[in-house]
Write a structure and sequence with these properties.
The complex is a heterodimer. Chain A is α/β, with parallel strands linked by helices. Chain A contains five helices and three strands; from the N terminus they run ααβαβαβα. The two termini of chain A are about 25 Å apart. Chain B starts with 9 loop residues before the first strand and ends with a helix. The interface between A and B is medium-sized, with 29 and 39 residues.
Chain lengths: ~130, ~290
């Protein structure tokens, strides 16, 4: 789950280069509301091919990290989270995003950079498979 | 030092009274940008955010000495707004609007030929010379005055690279989003030329993506001009599926053309240093600058 076309392409490239296969892809548009993001999350969660979720977001001038975090939290509250969630949130309100997700008791791993996100995801997927 | 915009840039907003324009004008003013007014046809004579509103760009220029505009006009009227800026010979027009009809942009391109206006965008996050002037919608919290020029087709990846150059303590001279549309104003070549001439820019980061020929044109120019400064390039979408539009209107690889691998190859052959991944763009520039000196 990313916000932005270029970041989406770059995230796919980084995943593939590290032997991870994207199963589903969600690009959040800047004008999305938390409810729309929650609806999108529900579709991601419903895809049986999805074994783990990587959130790589960069809070900008219009769409801030906290809005995305609220969307994710809504879906997790509605239907529960059964797969690993790795979150890299940077930019506007990234700390608030972390707080929102943790305050809701959602089990997520927070990482500081794109590279770290993919490394963590690799370990997580390996552990799940074992 | 910076290119295109600095402390003396006087900015008007076209479509000034709209919600997005209002929001981003307030942020630009808070950043220190000299916003001197706005244009909304039919609303001339009013005040908005304490600044004068004019009926036309020409009138706004005459009254305020504006040198640049930020265009926040909906798609159907955006070409008209750009045309007005060109006819008024405004030096710089920055169009943020996404989803402008391609045919409208073809007409705008024709108007730009031989004109005195430089156009950035459409579908651009805008440009920023940190500490001096910001025209657009980008977050500015990590933009720091410095020596790296950034030119990019992707707003989200630009934020990523700004963060990396900030962390590496280079900062940026100017960061430009040339937009994600297939037909646009300034391209990579125009920006590379300006960055190479700018004494305040030590290196340039070029962020491309699949689709179109902008990266190939940059490679041809770079091979001919010679890399006078280190150029680090990253092209997103090596693993993107073919024939699928990836977010931006211009981001599509059809008939085997516009793929990332070809773009990376020609840029590399032309003397650009290729960043292996989006996470290593700052590090690649650090290495390039070390070797350069």
């Amino acid at each position: 789950m990313v916000n932005g076309a270029g970041l989406a392409l770059a995230t796919i490239d980084l995943m593939k280069d590290n032997g991870l296969e994207p199963a589903d892809f969600m690009d959040i548009r800047p004008v999305a509301t938390r409810e729309q993001i929650a609806t999108g999350c529900a579709l991601l969660f419903a895809n049986p091919e999805v074994k783990a979720i990587l959130v790589n977001i960069y809070g900008g001038g219009i769409l801030r990290c906290d809005t995305i975090a609220e969307g994710i939290a809504l879906t997790c509250k509605r239907q529960g989270l059964t797969i690993p969630l790795v979150v890299r949130a940077a930019g506007t309100n990234h700390e608030l995003a972390r707080k929102i997700i943790l305050d809701q008791g959602i089990k997520a791993t927070f990482v500081g950079s794109m590279g770290e996100a993919v490394e963590t995801l690799k370990k997580t997927v390996k552990r799940e498979a074992a | 030092m910076a290119i295109l915009i600095d402390n003396d840039t006087r900015v008007i907003f076209q479509g000034f009274t709209g919600a997005q324009a209002t929001f981003h004008a307030e942020r630009a003013i808070a950043y220190g940008t000299k916003v001197v007014g706005g244009v909304v046809p039919g609303k001339g004579g009013r005040k908005h955010l304490g600044l004068p509103v004019f009926d036309s760009v020409a009138e706004a220029m005459a009254e305020t000495g504006a040198t640049a505009s930020a265009i926040f006009v909906p798609p159907a009227n955006a070409a008209g707004a750009m045309g007005e800026a060109i006819e008024a010979e405004l030096p710089l027009a920055v169009c943020v609007t996404e989803r402008i009809p391609v045919l409208d942009m073809v007409r705008v391109k024709r108007k730009l030929e031989g004109s005195k206006t430089r156009l950035i965008g459409p579908n651009s996050q805008g440009l920023i010379s940190p500490g001096a002037c910001k025209i657009g919608v980008m977050p500015a919290h990590l933009d720091s005055p410095g020596t790296i020029g950034i030119v990019s087709r992707s707003a989200s990846l630009t934020s990523e690279v700004v963060e990396q150059t900030h962390t590496a303590r280079f900062g940026q001279s100017t960061t430009i989003g040339i937009g994600g549309d297939p037909v646009a104003g300034m391209n990579f070549v125009d920006c590379l030329e300006l960055f190479f001439e700018d004494p305040g820019t030590d290196g340039v980061i070029l962020i491309g993506e699949i689709g179109g020929t902008a990266e190939e044109e940059a490679a041809v120019w770079l091979a001919k001009a010679g890399a006078k400064k280190p150029v680090v390039a990253y092209v997103a979408g090596r693993h993107a599926p073919a024939e699928r539009r990836m977010g931006h209107a211009g981001t599509v690889n059809v008939f085997g053309r516009g793929g990332a691998d070809d773009k990376i190859k020609v840029l590399g052959n032309a003397g650009a240093l290729i960043a292996p991944s989006a996470a290593e763009i700052g590090a690649t520039m650090r290495g390039a600058l070390r070797r350069w000196h």
